[in-house]
Fold:
Amino acid sequence: MTIPSFVIGIAGGTGAGKTTVARLITENVGDSVTRIPVDNYYKDLSHLPIEERETVNYDHPSAFEWSLLRTQLENLLEGRSIEMPEYDFTAHNRKSDRTIVEPTDVIVLEGIFALYDEKVTEMLDLRLYVETDADVRILRRIQRDVIDRGRKLEGVMQQYLDTVKPMHEQFIEPTKSHADLIIPEGANSVAVNLLEEKIRTEVEGNSSRNWERDSIENELTGTLEIEDD
Ligand SMILES: Nc1ncnc2c1ncn2[C@@H]1O[C@H](COP(=O)(O)OP(=O)(O)O)[C@@H](O)[C@H]1O
Ligand SMILES: O=c1ccn([C@@H]2O[C@H](COP(=O)(O)O)[C@@H](O)[C@H]2O)c(=O)[nH]1
Structure:
């Protein structure tokens, strides 16, 4: 059983480069890392027709099932596997399938609201906010939403002006104050290299959470290790 030793939260606006930073800073730790997209915890809207789901404000905190995210993160931190929901951006809805996620040494929680909920934020060992100019972010978003998420340009522009931009200013940008580190211009190589090194060190066993992990494991196995020195 693995008790995660290092939990990282990566927040930032849409298109800021959160997923890219998450991938780059953890690509050298192989199977020791699990990525949890906060987007997977959008509420299940199966009871609404697609026309109504298209009009939901997905950039408001109330769009998320926070209780499920808290519980699942707690379970992972205590060494239990979870059934993580999956999300379909084209259908604006949760998928019927869930993914079994086993706890690993490093957990990366990533999403626009990764630093929003107090209880979730308390569970993080390192809080990052990726900061990228709004014009760069909207250009990236247009490209992604039209190509990968099957949206029309007019719809993407309207959604940006109606909800994405104002919610970013009201709710997402202020979470920057919860960050330990602000990463300018997304995946910049200096920040990526430093964070990569930090994560490697944590995986190799130097984190404070390892003390907690050892004691939980000892409790569970009923053993007590006495150090010689
Ligand atoms: N530093 C960067 N330079 C150039 N393109 C980038 C950079 N970071 C991310 N991108 C590109 O921008 C798009 C959005 O990045 P992504 O990491 O998915 O953002 P987010 O997860 O914050 O929405 C992707 O196509 C990605 O390849
Ligand atoms: O059904 C949905 C759910 C979410 N969105 C948009 O997604 C982004 C968050 O994803 P990023 O990868 O961080 O960009 C958020 O701004 C929502 O507006 C959506 O369009 N439809």
Remarks:
- The helical segments are 18-26, 50-53, 66-77, 118-122, 134-147, 153-172, 189-206, 209-221.
- The longest strand covers residues 93-101.
